[in-house]
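Problem statement: downstream parser choked on a complex file, so we are re-checking the raw output for the uridine-5'-diphosphate run. The parser issue turned out to be on our end (a line-ending mismatch), but while we're here, posting the original submission so the record is complete.
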Amino acid sequence: MKKNKILIVGAGFAGSTIARELADAGCKVHVIDKRPHIAGNAYDEIDAHGILVHRYGPHIFHTNSERIFEYLSRFTAWHPYEHRVLGVVDGKQYPFPINRDTLNLLYGLNLDEAGAADWFEKVREPREPVRSSEDVVLNSVGRDLYEKFFLNYTRKQWGLEPSQLKAGVAARIPTRTNTDDRYFTDTFQAMPLHGYTKMFENMLDHPNIRIETGVDFAGIENISSYAHVVYTGPIDAYYGHRFGRLPYRSLSFEHEHLAGVSQFQPVGTVNYPNDHAYTRITEFKHLTGQSHPGTSIVREYPQAEGDPYYPIPRDENEALLKRYEELALAEKDVTFVGRLAQYRYYNMDQVVGAALVAAQRIREHLTARS
Ligand code: FAD
Ligand code: UDP
């Protein structure tokens, strides 16, 4: 029966959320992923030394959406965690995002909140309009802080100048006149208590869901036997790159275990804007709250080639995306959802939000056809 048979390509947040929603609605859902595991880039696992690590770099869950937090809470309990980051400049670690303590420590000042606001007002380089990531940072904190914390990190992370990236990239990072040193200020900040992979196992544990890992969409022959396909891989790959390749930024992850070292660094992540080929080091025990006599860390090395991790927010890429989106819009029986399929710099919660909306639309579409 084709009527309610669904193929989902990709078992990350996008694919797994839609799989669960459609399975709950009575569809027979077949989920494939070309990787040997579920959970997409949020995949975590116990390493050879017994520490829970994130294979594809640190994933910290945060959202302002109660609906999304409640939705995921059906599949996991939570470990409360507020992420903190330090940025290394001239060998010293400073709170990042830049806050009042960053200014006082860096410049030997003793500013209060109003003093910090005055300071930013004095040093900022007003830009109008604010188009690029360079504009965003210069406009809020001025040149010295831009050069110390942003310029080289961005060059390393993207292989581009901040002036070549859209404003939204650097706008992810706030500037603060108070001393709040949390990386995120969302209402809900927590890690899945038993890890992301366990949460995904619970999402996909449903009599109407069949999962096959290690299976590429390219090898699926009987696509016409499905009533609908949900595709969460790169949209340009789906169309055989016919208009050209959408660029994605990749990373290589260097995992290391330090036996007998109970803590490597004071906070979850330390950023290295100006030193080393890697951008940041994350120590997982901070994120998960795990106790262990040793510790495991990961270094992130940005690179052009490799698995697609980041869409690159630039006007020319969005123009190319539009051409693929036109093809996608004309598809009645294929839905494109997720960070790669929509080519959007989505956080995990945004992917869940987009997937819940898409699942609702697919349900309506299937009902209208039956
Ligand atoms: P993915 O997780 O990429 O899943 C897509 C899946 O599709 C993949 O498993 C892939 O193997 C599969 N696939 C692709 N093509 C095919 C094919 N042809 N056949 C079969 N399968 C295919 N977000 C946060 O909210 N907080 C964070 O702290 C955070 N940190 C991040 C750190 C890094 C280093 C990265 C790269 C991302 C981070 N994110 C973070 C973003 C988060 O990873 C994504 O928003 C989310 O995982 C995207 O889910 P998705 O389902 O769209 O894509
Ligand atoms: N950024 C920076 N210096 C830092 C941290 C971030 O210049 O110490 C810039 C950089 O361009 C980065 C962007 O801000 O790509 C967004 O940072 P975020 O930590 O949100 O990136 P992600 O966790 O998605 O890799």
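For whoever reads this later: The mean pLDDT is 97.
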